[in-house]
Write a structure and sequence with these properties.
This protein has 428 residues and is of the alpha+beta class. It has 14 helices and ten strands. The longest helix is centred in the last third of the chain and has 25 residues. The relative contact order is 0.08.
């Protein structure tokens, strides 16, 4: 019985008992029937999809399994169990374990995601290496993929898009399947975009008098197409950007690209040295997602959530977020007042569901605080033995007199220990 695949066996058993009640007997009819190709079982649709969604969240999958594959594995396991009259947690857990192992045993191969970013002014191709990809940027569409790329579909979906505002991007990754390749490619693109956007967004603010553009200077094209090494499409599907806004304007990098790239290389190297690459990949992906939307309230709320993650607030209250943010800023009085205002705005938006006109201004204010905190954390994590140690350090009072008093107390305790050790023999 593969109990290790379930996070809550009692809940799984209850959900499966409900799924079993939805299974149709031979010849039984209902309003809407759900079937699956290659399997003979059928289910009443009433609540079925919700039950499978719950079950997916109750499975402990390997971190390498992409979300779409998790869903496919669970569905195949459920239908196989139904065909075998074995809708039980042990049998299904065993099937999930087997299917997951088969997926993880697959050999990786090269994939190429074709998309674009909102920059102009590049005369030549530019290549960027990220931790797990190679990104090529060009003003010309890559010839290798021209015959298989569906230009007509893009035009029909986004008729107002101005291609002159974008440069084409090819992201090369190695992955086990199309879903993993797409997830990885977009993750690595946002890692690069995150650092580049910090370079262009830093110390910047604005006030919009009409519908605002996204805060990010470099935004993603709304349509992403995955291809094989020979140029053919890797999948009949396409992926799209849910945050896409027509208000996006292009950024001319003809005079600033090299400086931005140097900034990227320096920060990316520092992230590698600090040993917390995955943490910062997630942070930079969230940073990009937060600032890709033209909804300034959403950007503001997402920025506050990001600050909570950067300060390791966890289940602590906002006092911890504010106190740990203040530690690296000189003017603690002013910033403390600003953070309290930002907190109140955040609570108003969360608890009352209210929108506020100053959202753009406060989103920029919070963004610039986050920039400094990201830089601070890159160095702080490198110097710390663990996250737990760093959290404890961030909770110390940033006051010289208080720190001196604490040091004197500790030195006094160490003197006592040294004296004790010199007077008597301490048994092992």
């Amino acid at each position: 019985m593969a109990k290790s695949k379930w996070t809550d066996s009692a809940s799984v058993n209850e959900v499966l008992s409900r799924v079993e009640k939805l299974k149709l007997k031979a010849g039984q009819q209902c309003g809407q029937i759900i079937t699956k190709k290659s399997f003979k079982s059928a289910f009443n649709s009433n609540g079925f999809d919700n039950y499978l969604m719950l079950l997916k969240e109750l499975v402990r999958f390997d971190s390498e399994v992409p979300d779409a594959v998790k869903e496919q594995i669970l569905h195949d396991a459920i239908w196989h169990a139904a065909d075998m009259e074995q809708l039980q947690s042990g049998f299904i857990g065993g099937q999930i374990k087997r299917l997951e192992a088969e997926y993880l045993a697959q050999i990786t191969k090269k994939y190429y995601l074709i998309t674009a970013v909102s920059i102009t002014g590049l005369k030549n191709k530019r290549m960027i290496k990220t931790p797990k990809s190679v990104i090529t940027i060009s003003k010309h569409f890559p010839k290798k993929f021209k015959n298989s790329y569906d230009f007509q579909q893009v035009q029909s979906m986004y008729p107002r898009i101005n291609q002159k505002c974008y440069s084409w991007v090819t992201i090369e990754v190695c992955a086990k399947c199309v879903h993993a390749a797409t997830e990885l490619a977009l993750e690595q693109l946002d890692y690069w975009r995150g650092i580049f956007n910090i370079f262009f967004n830093r110390n910047y603010t604005r006030t919009s008098f009409r519908k605002p553009a996204p805060i990010n200077k470099i935004t993603k094209y709304p349509y992403h197409s995955l291809h094989m090494e020979n140029g053919d499409k890797a999948s009949p599907f396409y992926w799209f950007d849910p945050n896409f806004s027509y208000e996006t304007s292009s950024l001319d990098v003809s005079q600033s690209y090299d400086q931005a790239k140097s900034f990227y290389q320096k920060k990316s190297t520092d992230i590698d040295i600090c040993g917390s690459r995955n943490f910062f990949i997630e942070i930079l992906n969230r940073y990009c997602s937060s600032l890709d939307t033209s909804d300034m309230n959403s950007s503001f709320l997402a920025m506050w959530s990001l600050l909570e993650s950067l300060t390791f607030t966890g289940k602590e209250n906002y006092h911890v977020t504010i106190a740990r943010t203040l530690i690296l800023f000189k003017d603690k009085f002013q910033l403390s007042l600003e953070l309290e205002i930002l907190r109140k705005k955040r609570n108003m938006a969360i608890h009352n569901g209210r929108q506020f006109k100053e959202a753009e201004k406060y989103a920029y204010q919070l963004m610039n605080i986050i920039h400094e905190y990201i830089f601070f954390l890159i160095g702080a994590i490198r110097k710390s033995k663990s996250t737990e140690q760093l959290e404890s350090v961030l909770d110390l009072p940033p006051d010289k007199a208080k720190l001196l008093k604490a040091r004197q107390q500790l030195e006094g305790e160490i003197e006592k220990l040294d004296l004790l050790n010199s007077l008597i023999k301490i048994e092992d």
